[in-house]
Design a protein that fits this description.
Layout: H1 5-14, H2 21-26, E1 36-37, H3 39-44, E2 49-53, E3 59-63, E4 72-76, E5 80-83, H4 104-108, E6 127-128, E7 135-136, H5 141-156, H6 161-170, H7 174-204, E8 232-233, H8 235-238, H9 252-269, H10 280-286, H11 289-302, E9 304-308, H12 317-329, E10 362-368, E11 376-377, E12 383-386, E13 394-398, E14 409-410, H13 419-430, H14 437-441
Parallel strand pairs: 1-8, 11-14
Antiparallel strand pairs: 2-3, 4-13, 5-10, 6-7, 9-10, 12-13
Bound molecules: S-adenosylmethionine (SAM).
Length: 443
């Protein structure tokens, strides 16, 4: 009975769609790699979880049964993600945000593209054009194959370096996730076109096999998840489910970042590889300022900061000490789950959480999840977040015993702040006042 409320909730979310319907409704094909699913299917994969309406707080996730402290409630892979733009060479896998060992190759690449790479100790799984053009770096052949099948083939032909630089200067990261989304869309257009051509050719060749090759085929190897890959939302069809901030007039920096994004996509319009898929007009029409604003308005309320542990630098004694302190202090995972700007944060929310373990953690990137975006905030959350595979797969664990039909909550902010600081942070970044028991007591 509780699950029967889902269809109504899903359509309620859909009616708040801000991104152009056309763009989102074109992405209906299944993607290769880690399973990309819709909201209903993702809920089916998380049997402990129900999606229900919460008076005064939109939708929220609830416990479907009594859950014991320590139980893994569910794991989820992100539907959109990006490494944070940094002046240093990339030290993060572009497909899963796993930290990569620094290598001589990375050091050499410092002055060139956004995500340049040369051969490294863990193997050269980079992709992209040679020279100063962007190249993407991956931790394994599986990650590379998954990324190339879904977005990285297009991204490698774009020029997002100016966008990266502007994001770094502005302390922004969400425009890079919008760029990833645009590349996903371009590749899906190509897959759709390919399927149409395959259908036509099969009709015309009396049982013959199509000779048309596809750049969007299934990856040869699985991505580097450990164990069963968790499902991920299909960003192209599911992003509209996420709540968004109403932004009547896009802030000036967004206008500039949008034009850099469009400029970065332009090489696709003149590339033979994307002929028939991308024209300059199509790119401009589909990735309009309204589309960009809608994507950013959602990411600002829903994206998580990913906390992973970089590889140990055995030559640095202070790094060893920090790692030891972190392993004694726990993960610190419940602090500051989301990545939005908060008052007093020097880096737009990308500063470390206050958890004891955060000293040895770094924040290689941001990620947006489908189901986790439905989790509401409490200053006394009953779920802990962790990154058990040291990549962008999030795990939600019961922080205490949770009764059936109790709301599942995380903390969006550093819950160790004073009540006044917490209220100010939540109001500033998310636009609501927390009414949790702790806030009601002023604790
Ligand atoms: C990540 S979304 C959470 C899911 C959201 N309730 C929905 O329906 O999509 C964050 C938004 O949920 C609402 N929210 C989250 N926690 C809340 C709380 N404790 N009290 C009131 N509103 C809350 C705020 O509007 C916030 O901007």
């Amino acid at each position: 009975m509780l699950r029967s409320a889902l269809a109504a909730l899903v359509s309620a979310g859909a009616s708040r769609m801000l991104i152009t319907t056309r763009l989102l409704s074109t992405g209906v094909l299944a993607s290769a790699g880690a399973p990309r699913v819709g909201l209903e299917e993702q809920l089916q994969q998380a049997p402990w979880v129900l999606l229900l309406q919460v008076p005064g707080a939109g939708r929220g996730l609830f416990a479907a049964a009594d859950i014991e402290q320590g139980t893994v409630v569910y794991e989820e892979a992100p539907m959109l993600w990006t490494p944070h733009p940094a002046p240093a060479p990339p030290t993060t896998c572009h497909a899963c945000l796993r930290p990569l060992a620094p290598s001589a190759g990375c050091e050499e690449a410092r002055a060139s593209g956004i995500s340049d790479s040369t051969s490294s100790s863990d193997g050269d799984h980079s992709a992209g054009r040679q020279g100063s053009a962007p190249r993407l770096r991956f931790c394994s052949p599986g990650c590379r194959a998954d990324a190339e099948a879904t977005w990285a083939a297009a991204a490698a032909d774009c020029d997002f370096w100016p966008l990266q630089q502007a994001c770094r200067e502005a302390g922004e990261k969400f425009p890079l996730m919008a760029a990833q989304l645009a590349c996903m869309q371009v590749q899906r257009w190509q897959q759709q076109q390919q399927q149409q051509q395959d259908g036509t050719e099969q009709h015309g060749t009396a049982g013959g096999t199509s000779t048309v090759t596809s750049t969007g085929g299934a990856p040869a190897a699985a991505p580097a998840w450990q164990g069963e890959p968790p499902t991920r939302g299909d960003a192209l069809t599911q992003l509209h489910h996420l709540c968004y901030a109403n932004i009547a007039v896009p802030p000036e920096p967004w206008v500039r970042l949008h034009s850099l994004l469009l400029r970065g996509l332009q090489p696709l319009a003149s590339s033979a590889r994307w002929a028939g898929v991308c024209t300059a007009e199509r790119l401009q029409l589909e990735f309009s300022p309204e589309w960009f604003c809608g994507v950013l308005a959602r990411l600002h309320l829903n994206a998580f900061r990913v906390d992973t542990v970089p590889p140990l630098d055995l030559s640095d004694p202070s790094a060893l000490l920090r790692a030891a302190a972190a392993s004694l202090g726990g993960s610190g995972a419940a602090a500051a789950a989301f990545g939005a700007a908060v008052p007093g944060s020097s880096s737009g929310g990308s500063s470390s959480g206050s958890g004891a373990g955060s000293t040895a953690q770094h924040h290689p990137g941001s990620a947006a999840f489908l189901l986790a975006s439905m989790l509401n905030h409490s200053c006394e959350p009953n779920l802990d977040i962790s990154w058990p595979h040291n990549n962008a797969v999030a795990r939600f664990t019961a922080a205490r015993d949770i009764a059936a039909h109790e709301q599942l909550t995380i903390s969006y902010i550093d819950a160790e702040q004073s009540a006044a600081q917490r209220q100010a942070a939540l109001q500033f970044a998310y636009g609501f006042s927390c009414g949790c028991p702790r806030c009601r007591e002023g604790a």
